[in-house]
């Protein structure tokens, strides 16, 4: 077993180095690289090297040997070996040439997607979407087991243990409970004068407020980088190199505020992984939904709370004194929680957000089971936006081309956003038993809250399954009712309805 | 041979991917990475992977087979194979653990060097300098041949065919011809009112002029990136991804102008490599001296010419109208050519520049032959600055810690700067036979000059030895007298001396 452990560690050292290259090139492509530079050949070679290492006979035998002795290993290593067995078995089912060609296809697709979106021209991107869907359908056939088939293969990869059945039930419940609430609210106005929101907020001022928020969240320049990109995202490599991006709109200053808090939620998770786990293959977050639970917890539950604005409004007013003359903290609270069916997911309010996810979930499901084809995406998108959100989609740019995920081949990713939001409410409920959360927010720092999250969730990194972390943090299994209760309670109160 | 060619290409595809990672991490570390992030483990693993590929039996046999059949290959490939044989033979003489440990040492050294420089504390960096010198001494013993010993091993690696003997003669000639001229000039003032140089030049304005110069040089944003860093440098990967950095001093606005032109000279070389060569292992410049010849040609011979300021002064005046009120193009010409013995190499004028190089050359030579030790660097540095340039060095920050090269293990690099400057004059002499260079400059674009350089030098990339390229471009072997004639002619005229 000692020899196997050496081979395992040695291979992972190389795999981690290749993952570092992957992180660097991804960060570079999204923030820095000249637009017409092209490193596809190098990226393909790197992906091939990674494939070869993970599927080599030597590594495979070492992992199998460690798996046979898994009960003699530490908990962290045992969990890693279980994941490694699964991962190399799955990878071996994908022929290397298809694996590499698919990676190259995604690299080419990225630029085409950006162009298609800018021109609002779905037809430009269609041949690529078709190829990605074709690959994904083949992929699920390769990976199918007695337990998992079709789209479930992808759902389980993004969030272990999830399936169409579970998501169908989850979304049905959301639909049942939230749609009536949204209908009641529809057309109602929150009682405040929102004219201050139509004023000009300089990018420089927005950046100053973002910088202030970095201090609140505890982002130090020692271990973090902040940049701009078209779509805000979080990247990084290990807990000491965490990078977030943002964008700034003169006509929507709250967008950059909440993008910043959201991405810092992801970053905070990465930074609080324990040192012991950070250096292993289990560094980083436990799953997409768990990651999203952290960003949406910080963005929505903390950042859109009344206490948040009561504590931080003065700083915003200091930066924009003329715009905010006569405006109150409560006005900001109301503005940041206004619910309205709208076109763009990333700008959606907390209440209607999951309807956006449901549209994407249905389309993914149908694409994977062959019920629709890539060419049907725009019409299905527009039909579902009308059905779920009651709105007409004027263009593909604001419609089915708004998100990059499918162009990155990420089918099965979207539903984790809704699940993560639900995790966040369950976590919030548990946190309140230990902490006076509103009082913590009023200290002006998130540190008490972050300490709780570190102890209950962050420190484990990916060394446990998300469901086990959720159970550890909250004392119970996933329960979507916390999400519904939170939203119904908050929005009924906001809009003066009977809860 | 077909099989060997396949193995050769396949290995190089991976080596190029690893080189791309090396470029990305270098760029990231110098411009972007959070200061306390640390990716040493990943960088070591990558360097090990590169070592393993280059020293594998399979690759080695393939290269030897291709070498045996080299006369059947294209000129580009033949040159590559000759270089590959030499390179893998040399690498095999370095034990892998020492190779990797040395790379890790350099990674650690970088941050220590920055701290030592900022604190002007040589003692902080000394243990690292000692280890680097120790490795370099071992390295030259490993690589010694009948033809090459000691420091010559390193000189030959930086510029094929150069040796102590050649450099000693070259520097002796420079000393003989330039030092008397410098003495004559010493204390003389150029006839212009330089008070405009003491005014405040905003960073924003300096950036605008740099942007304007990018247009003059033909840098398009499609394939280039421009950033800031403590020391300006050029980086990139292939002709379609060229990156330069700059710094801005409010009290020395010409510094950023000439740093920009210098780095764009490097970048222009990279961008003009032929498509055919760019994709091979012979992409990039032919050698350090040839690269430096291009940057110094553009910076000094073109950028510090009278025609340059006659053509571009108006733009500078448009950006800084108040500072330059009453100032003429000729004033800028004089300011940018003022000769003065000074402390810092990168800010040195064209005439005294090579004296700075000579100091470094002597110290390197003595370190490698054991005449002095790392601890003697500051005292020898200060002694030689007094002897060659007649000035006292007030601190190590402005003295022996001013350059990062030795902290990067680059012994043998500095002399190529002087050689490159001399190449530039020889190239200029040849160019003037084909082109009216002053008239070209006055077109407002460097494109005619760049076209000549592309045809004579750039397109070959590293597919020929530098001496062959110099011969092709100028019709003769290296002749340092062009450099001396150029400097003596220009400075005698400037300072009103008899040439």
Can you characterise this structure?
Two copies of one chain form a homodimer. Chain A is an all-alpha fold. Chain A folds into two domains: 2-92; 165-494, Neurolysin, domain 3 (Orthogonal Bundle). Chain A is 63% helix and 3% strand. Chain A contains 21 helices and three strands. A three-stranded mixed sheet of chain A has the order 1-3-2, sandwiched between helices. In chain A, a hairpin with a 5-residue loop joins β2 (234-236) and β3. Chain A is globular, with a radius of gyration of 23 Å. The termini of chain A are far apart. The model of chain A has no long low-confidence stretch (mean pLDDT 95). The interface between A and B is large, with 36 and 35 residues.
Number of DSSP strands of chain A? 3
| Rg over C-alpha atoms of chain A, rounded to the nearest angstrom | 23 Å
CATH architecture of the largest domain in chain A: Orthogonal Bundle
- Largest interchain contact: A-B, 36 and 35 residues
Assembly status: homodimer
Largest sheet of chain A: 3 strands, mixed
List the domain count of chain A as a whole number.
2
Name the overall outline of chain A. Answer: globular
Strand ordering within the main sheet of chain A: 1-3-2
Beta-strand share of residues of chain A:
under 5%
Mean pLDDT of chain A: 95
> What's the CATH C level of the largest domain in chain A?
Mainly Alpha
């Amino acid at each position: 077993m000692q020899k196997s452990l050496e081979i395992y560690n040695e291979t992972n050292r190389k795999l981690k180095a290749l993952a570092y290259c992957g992180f660097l090139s991804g960060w570079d492509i999204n923030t820095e690289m000249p637009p017409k530079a092209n490193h596809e050949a190098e990226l393909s070679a790197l992906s091939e090297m990674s494939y070869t290492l993970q599927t080599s006979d030597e590594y495979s035998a070492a992992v199998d040997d460690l798996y046979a002795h898994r009960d003699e290993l530490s908990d962290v290593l045992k969990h890693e070996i279980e994941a490694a067995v699964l991962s190399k078995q799955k990878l071996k089912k994908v022929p290397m040439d298809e694996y590499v060609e698919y990676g190259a296809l995604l690299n080419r697709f990225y630029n085409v997607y950006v162009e298609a979106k800018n021109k609002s021209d779905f037809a430009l991107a269609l041949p690529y979407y078709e190829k990605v869907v074709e690959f994904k359908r083949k992929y699920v056939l390769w990976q199918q087991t007695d337990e998992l088939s079709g789209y479930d293969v992808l759902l389980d990869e993004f969030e272990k243990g999830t399936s169409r059945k579970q998501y169908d039930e989850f979304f049905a419940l959301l639909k049942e409970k939230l749609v009536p609430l949204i209908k009641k609210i529809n057309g109602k106005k929150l009682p405040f004068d929102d004219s201050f929101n139509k004023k000009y907020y300089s990018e420089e001022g927005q950046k100053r407020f973002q910088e202030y928020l970095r201090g609140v969240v505890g982002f130090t320049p020692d271990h973090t980088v902040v940049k701009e990109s078209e779509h805000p995202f979080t990247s990084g490599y290990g807990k000491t190199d965490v990078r977030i991006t943002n964008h700034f709109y003169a006509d929507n200053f709250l967008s950059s505020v909440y993008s910043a808090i959201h991405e810092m939620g992801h970053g905070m998770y990465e930074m609080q992984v324990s040192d012991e786990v950070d250096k292993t293959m289990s560094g980083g977050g436990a799953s997409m939904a768990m990651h999203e639970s952290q960003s949406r917890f910080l963005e929505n539950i903390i950042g859109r709370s009344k206490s948040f604005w009561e504590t931080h409004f003065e700083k915003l007013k200091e930066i924009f004194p003329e715009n905010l003359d006569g405006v109150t903290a409560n006005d900001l609270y109301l503005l940041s929680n206004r619910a309205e069916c709208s076109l763009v997911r990333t700008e959606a309010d907390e209440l209607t957000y999951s309807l956006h996810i449901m549209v994407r979930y249905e389309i993914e499901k149908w694409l994977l089971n062959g019920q629709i084809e890539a060419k049907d995406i725009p019409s299905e998108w527009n039909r579902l936006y009308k059905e779920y959100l009651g709105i007409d989609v004027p263009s593909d740019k604001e419609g089915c081309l708004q998100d990059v995920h499918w162009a990155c081949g990420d089918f099965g990713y979207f539903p984790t956003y809704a699940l993560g939001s639900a995790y966040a409410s369950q976590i919030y409920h548990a946190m309140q038993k230990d902490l006076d959360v509103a009082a913590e927010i009023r200290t002006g720092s998130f540190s008490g809250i972050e300490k709780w999250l570190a102890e209950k969730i962050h420190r484990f990194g990916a060394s446990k399954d998300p469901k086990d972390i959720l159970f550890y943090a909250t004392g119970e299994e996933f329960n979507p009712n916390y999400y519904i209760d939170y939203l119904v309670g908050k929005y009924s109160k906001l809009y003066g309805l009977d809860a």
